[in-house]
Write a structure and sequence with these properties.
Layout: H1 23-40, H2 50-59, H3 62-75
Length: about 80
């Protein structure tokens, strides 16, 4: 079975945002939710995947992490 990059979702207090997604991104998000449901047996709304995907992306972006560390060092 495929190993997806997302870990199990944590239920935290959400902050409501409104976003517009291009059609192909939305279709891919729906497909990802289907694959995740098949892999975990847990049905999940595709919209609930957006935050964990963004978190995963930012957590693995080396340039962002480096800039963030530099900013934190600068602020202290």
């Amino acid at each position: 079975m495929t190993k997806l990059k997302l870990n199990p979702l944590v239920d935290e207090k959400p902050v409501k945002l409104t976003v517009e997604l291009p059609g192909p991104v939305h279709r891919d998000l729906l497909a990802y939710a289907e694959v995740l449901a098949a892999e975990t047996g847990q049905q999940i709304e595709s919209v609930k995947l957006i935050a964990p995907m963004l978190m995963r992306f930012m957590a693995t972006d080396r340039a962002f992490l480096k800039a963030r560390r530099a900013k934190l060092t600068q602020d202290n």
